[in-house]
Structure formats: structure tokens, C-alpha cells
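The instructor's notes for this session suggest beginning with a concrete chain rather than abstract definitions. Hand out the sequence below and ask the class to guess, before any prediction is shown, which regions might be ordered.
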Amino acid sequence: MAGVVAAVAAAGWAAASAVAGVHQYERLAISPAGDLVAAVETVELPGRTAEPHGTLVVRKVADGAVLAAYDPCNSCTYADPTWSPDGKILTFIGADRRTRTAQVLQVVDGKVMIPVAFPGLLAKPRWSPDGAVLAMLATAHPSKESGATNPGAARVGEIDAAPDERRIAVLASGAVRMVSPADRFVYEYDWTPDGRGFVATDAVGDGDNNWWVAKLEAIDLATGAARTIAAPKVQMGYPRVSPDGATVVFIGGLMSDFPVIGGDLYAVPFSGGEARDVTPGFKGSFNSLTWRRGGLYATALVGDRATLFSVGKDWSFRPLWSDAASLAAGDGRLAISADGTRFATTRQTFTVAPQIAAGPIKALKAITHDNDALVANAEARSVTWTRDGQSVQGWLLAPKGLEPGKTYPMAVQIHGGPSSAVEPRFTWEGTTHALLDRGYFIFEPNPRGSYGQGEAFTRANVEDFGGGDLRDVLAGVDAVEKIAPVDDRRLAVYGGSYGGYMTMWAVTHTDRFRAGAAGAGIADWVSYYGQNGIDQWMVPFFGGTAYDNPAVYDRLSPIRYIKQAKTPTFIYVGELDVECPPAQSLEFWHGLKAMGVPTSLVIYPGEGHHIAKPTNQQDVDARTLAWFERYLGSAQ
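After discussion, reveal the predicted structure:
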């Protein structure tokens, strides 16, 4: 019966993929031989009222032809496809978000089997090097979906209840057997080359809050015993063990959000010791790592380009390929075959819709064409400028159909983080797309604190939120106005998370913007420290806790400058936002109301840090567009 289900799904998928919409390819994996790719594929339709149901699709690397499609669970969200080392078994996870249960799904000889169902969350299945054991991350009986951006559990009853634990587990005798210690939350893990255990980043306590103080641990497969390899002061991503088992390499740096990774390469003996930065002064931000037979491969954002490097045994690195595009795969930015000769990624730019690109790295080409007919509603260019003696980069999106001699309004979108960066992504819906359709220019700066220009640049906003980064943004606006027909009298500012904070900061520190829209912002860092569920992230950015260093927290709080505010500001937030609780938006809204500044606040029920329900997303778009047109006027 499983074989029949797979065949029907494949036929149905071929028909569904022809429906008008944007075809998405997520969690991409490549087979060990490099001849196949698998991804969770969906078709997103405009005006949808729910997220589309995905299908696991297997394609040929040579030409993108669909070989099979699997959809064995109509209530499941699929994730994390991975092949066994011999390429004979394709494993993926099916999760029912409503019941918070999961299944391990395996394709063998074209048939889908369910070796185990689990009362909780499962993620990141990985085979041991010899293919004998399947490991995964498991959270039994969770109170919420893992990750601080997901809606939080209701804060009622005993608040000090035990937090969710996420542990390394293995599939054994038709059951999930927990391996790593019960008191810890594992963020990332990798097998050791001998198959006897794992390297992991983990922390004791609440998983949402403690990634910023996680340790690098060795965990024994047989006993579950954990040994600390290193406890660096930086945040860590992509822990990977060298093929000889002697060294652990990871990406380390100042990071504000898991799993948004960026930093230098660090190395430490597997036996333990002090982690060492082996790429100091690198003018970029590494963002994924992969060991293959050909050696260590690392991807990085360097300026405005995604770049692949080969890393030598002496930690020298050689660029192999770069592209002004966004890249994504299931376990890094690029999926790489076992021998390191074939690569695959989901690629997109501001003007090219998502596509799977695959092949040898020097001959990477698009193998899917579902989105070829889609046309962007903007032209994009990278812009650089100088402020305070350092180079800054950003992206300018221009609407189509510009008329000679006419000037246009511009909205400045400030990204979240702050440790993050705007990378080229195809925009086909959302606030930015709506504004471009109405004739707005969009400016997306990567000010100090962003990834892409080295760790010193990322650290340049420590204890200075809203200071140098706002100067960078305003200098960027000046640079844009020299090269584009932008009306300086019709500027708006918007963003979410840190971008929401920066919007609140901007409207209390400059009158240059005629309107603002702040999503999930932060008004008062002092009160925020005690309200949010991830206060550990703040310590390295503020030089201590709010109780140790209150003057810095207070100085950088927009609410302290509320009497300077004049800019009409729309505010929105999710009711169950763990990262930026709605109390912060309420506080800023109240302050603007008290000052007589036009404002509006919407709290979306059941939503977390990211507004996830399509109907709520569409409401944000409509309200933001209407707000800007009210105070800037129409561009058309």
C-alpha cells in the first residue's frame, strides 16, 4: 500500500506544481553519490488562508526530473530529509503540529515505512558513519514547539515548571531511545567519525534562553555520559568533528538569534581545551560548515556575496565560488555529496524566484524551472557608502515603470537581529512587495552589527544600539538619494524584532521619517530584560545584565526619549511572543498616545515572534501600506 501511496502522490504533485503560485523547495538534501536531491516542496498561492501542505519530492541532479513524491500523512509537516551513507534509505520527519507528535518516515525501495511514532518533537535525523544507527533530536511531551520565535506557552499557573528537554536519541528496536543527559537542551549535534558518540552544543535549562551560554560537549553513545570539550564566550554554530576525530571545528561569534549563524572559524582538540579563532580578521561571516572526503568546506557572507571556501589543514581558505544570491539547504547553505564533487542548494535573488541549483561547483546550474515565468516587481542593486571611517553595504529595490523627472517615496526596512544581514530574496508577497507595487523605493541597509564584513563590524554596536547603526542607516539614505529619484520629504521606516526596536528608536531620535511601522519592537530594555524569555542574549551586547549594568540598558531605551517623538507609528506584535513580549509594544503605543502622536497598535492572537498565519500577514501588509500612504501620500 505504501508504494501505491507514493505513486499517487507523485502523479498528484506533477499536477499541483503547475498551479499558479510560487514553488518553494525547503530542507534540501543531496544523496551520497550526488545524483539525487530531495526537498520538501510546496506551492504558495496568493491570498491563501493557510500554509500549504508539503510533499517530499526526489529529483535527478542531472536535469531536475521528478523521480518520486511522498506524502504519507495529510496532517503532517515534513522536514529534514537525509540519506543513509549507502544511499539506500531516505529518512525524513513527519510532524503533526496540532498534537505535537512526530513520526520517523523512511523510504526503502520506493515504499514509505514508519519505523516509529513519537509523543513529541523530532528533528535532524542523522545516520552514523557506518549506516548502522539513526540518531535524531527528540523532545518528549513538549509544552510548545522548539524555538523562541514560535508562540510561547501560556504563562499561567506555576511559572517555574520544568522546561522542555531536547536530547540526542537513537532509533532502537522500534523505539526512540534517549542518549544525552536528561537535564539539557541540545541545539546542534554531529556524529564522531568512529560512530561511538557525538559532539553537541547544549545547555542546562530552558532551551529558548540558553543557547548564548551553551557548551561544546562530547556525548558517549553507549552510556550517554557528557564531557565538556570547551565553554567559549562566543556563541557557536555547526560543530563538526574532523575525519581523524582529533579536532572539533565550529563557527563562533557574537550572535543574537538561534539559528542565525555568523562568525569566525574556531578549532579545539576533541580531547578538550581552549577554543581558538583560526580565522581572525576575516572580512566576512562564516555561516555553515561541512566535512567531506575532499576536506572542510565553509560558506560565508562576504560583503554582498555568498561564497564557498575550501579550508586547508593549516586553516588557510581558498574561495571556490561566489554568487550574489541567497542559498539554503537542509544542513547548511549548500548540500554536498560524499566525495565533495557535487553540490546542491535552493537559490534565489531579488529578481530570480526560488530554484534548485545543482552540479559541480564550477558548473552549478538551475535544475528546476517551476518559477521561471515569475517576474519580480523591482530592480535591485547593491549600494555601498562610508560612515565613521568604515564601509557599509545595503540593497536598493526600485519599483518598475519609473517616469523621468518624477520623484518617489522610499521606505527603509531595517532587519532583525541585530546579528543578521539582508541577503537577496525573491519578493512576491508581503509588505515590501506591496510597497514596490505602489511605487515605493525600498532601502534595506546592513548597518554595523550586521553580518558580512567581519566580526569586528558585527561587534561594532555593542553597548551602542541605535547609535552607530542609526548613523549608518541615515548615511545610507543620503547615499541612495544621490543615485535614485527619491523624495526626501516622503521617507518611512519599518522593521520587525530588532528592526522594530530600530523603528521605535528612529522615530524618537530623528524627524526625517514621515511614518513608521514597528513589528515586535522593544521600548524599554530594562523592563524587557525581566519580561522576555531569552534574556541571556542581551548580556554580551550590553556588557552585563540589566541588574549589573542598568545605565546602558536605560540609555538605549526608546521610551526614555518619547517626548521627542513626532512620527506617526503603526505598531503590531504577536500575543504569545517570547522574544519581544507585547508589553513592550503596549508601552511604546501608550507613550505615543500620551504625546499626541498618531499611532495604532494591533496584537495578533495566538501568534509568536513571527506573524505566521497568512491572514494575519496579509492584515499587517494592508495596515502598513495604508498607514504609509496616509502620511506619505500615494506614489502613483
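Then share the key points. The two ends are 57 Å apart (CA to CA). The first strand starts at residue 22 and ends at 30.
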